[in-house]
Structure formats: structure tokens, C-alpha cells
Amino acid sequence: MTDESPIGAREAVLERIRAALVDRPAAVPIPRAYETALASETDRIGLFVDRVDDYRATIERTTAADLPTAVATTLAAHGARRIAVPTGVPDAWLATAAVERVADEPVLTHAELDALDGSISGCAVAIAETGTIVLDGAPDQGRRALSLLPDLHVCIVRADQVVGSVPEALARLDPRRPQTWISGPSATSDIELQRVEGVHGPRRLAVILVED
Question: What is the pLDDT of residues 1-37, one digit of tens each?
């Protein structure tokens, strides 16, 4: 029976592993030049619209000139009157909306956010293949709680932010920033497979796609 300390035993094991790996084959380079999933912008946009609709979110296509009207119409359709607005959201987005803009300065409590009718934000990137929208905490998106606690999230997506695949999206994102990946309204199923919405995030997601 040997009398080895835990540290000595650990080093002995590690030394055996290092010795066994001396003649290991060289690492194989991993290709990172991913092919784009959809070369055509028409294909990307069309697929993104279809995927978002599949997730039971609403999506409206508009132009930059008509965006304020689209935002106002969307908020009115959901009966939203008090909206959380990140600091970087352009005033023009809500220029014609009859809503109270609630700033996150000072930082709103969870109870205050839950009492609001909804929130509005931009996005960092959107993915056509999965219908996913990614937020990264930029000024026009704010902190994660703004898009998770209110019952309605209105998200503005520019056509040039829509990419074909997840690898293409990752290439545009800064891994050091906080990310929220959104694929439709929050939904889960209980043990009987009954769908319940709004458990982990907003119950309603309204996407407005800006094309020019």
C-alpha cells in the first residue's frame, strides 16, 4: 500500500496522460470559411418572414419612411400605452405613436417592467433559417430585462441585418457582449404537451422588418 498525498497522486496521473499524448497526431485545422446559406437577399428575407410567422409571432414589412406608422399601428393593435424604451431607440420610431415612453433611467425594477404594456427595441442580427432574432445589449436594445419582462416585445429588424444561417450570425456578433436569442414568443409545454406562452419571456412578439 503506497502512502501518496492527493497532490502527488494527481501529478502522477497527469504525467501518465502527458506521456501517452507525446506521439499524438497533429491537430486538424477546422475550416471557418462557412458557405452562406442563402445568397439571394430575396430568399433570406422571404424565409425569415416565413419562419417568424411559424413561431406565432407577427411580422410586418415596411420601409424606413413608413416605419413610424407601422410602429404606431402595431402598438395600437396590442392596446399598448406604456412602453419601455431603451436609450438608443430613435425618437422617429415612436414619432406618431400615442404611447407613454418609459425610459430605463434610473433602472426600472422588475415590478415596474412587469407593469408596462410592452417594450420596443432594435436588434443585432436576425437569422433566416431559424427565424431567430439576436439582441446584444446595444443602446437601441437595452438590457435583457427590457425584452423579457413586459408582455409585448416590438422588435425592429433592418433587411441588411438578416443573414442566412447561425454561423453567419455568429460572425457578426461580439462574443463578449450579452446575447439574447429570440425565436418567437416565449412558450413552453407542460407534461400533457399543453402549450403555455409567456413563462420565460414576452407572450407576444411583433417584428417589424424595414426594407429599402
Answer: 455 566 788 888 999 998 888 888 888 887 766 666 5
> CATH no. for residue 114?
3.40.50.10420
What's the number of domains the chain is made of?
1
| Cross-strand pairs, 134 | 125, 181
The answer to whether residue 23 is domain-embedded is no
State pLDDT tens for residues 35-70. Answer: 665 657 778 999 999 999 998 899 999 999 999 999
Buried b (16+ CB within 10 A) or exposed e, 27-57: eeeeeeeeeebbeeeeebbebbbebbeebeb
Domain that holds residue 178: 40-210
Flag whether 75 is in a domain. yes
